[in-house]
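DNA repair protein RecO
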Amino acid sequence: MEIKVDAIVIRTADYGESDRMLTLFTLQRGKLSAAAKGVRKAGAKLRFAAQPFCFAEYVLAQRGERNTVISAAETDSFYALRGDIGKFYAAASLAGVCDALLYDGMVSEELFLRAVNALRGMCDGDEAEELISFLLAALELSGYRLDLSGCAGCGALLGGKCFFDVADGCFYCADCARGAGVSAETLEVLKKCAGEECDPAKVTREGKRRAVKLLYAFFRAKTETEVKALAEYIALPQ
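Predicted structure tokens:
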């Protein structure tokens, strides 16, 4: 039987002399694995379809629980992500988060569309902001929404330095201090990327790095999963 799916390559693993196993995040059937035969040979017809982040319409041959790529029509290669180390690691972080949050066969149309839009945004825009926006959305879709509207202790509006408790995923004002300190710049970045009102003057590069670090700590606390690319992105020189 053959099936047709719209998919993003979120993980690859080489095997054999020239083959590659793909982990695909598909719109129609969620996460699945598919073998891409001979794609590591020079001039291979489907070489493009076995590259990280490739977004394409794949035709798969199904035999039992095994899938094999028999053809693909590229929608977007997101080629710009390969020419910038920051963009590449941000995209790899997105792919790793999708891989961690999805189990085989789990369909999430909203997460898929957000992933595609974030990858497109990373190509032409600020990859850090796109990654932060995606992480916030992915966490919310998984039931871990961050409430940036006010202090979890007293309800006061958050402003300036505040605190974040990774265990309960809540922010606290200076008076109710609980958890680790969060700079004003980090908070403003999170607000901006969540689509909330923020102070643009306080949206800094360091604030973005710290926002990613905060979200990764929260992600690990809730999923008990490491995403190597995300740790490497945070460690990149500014």
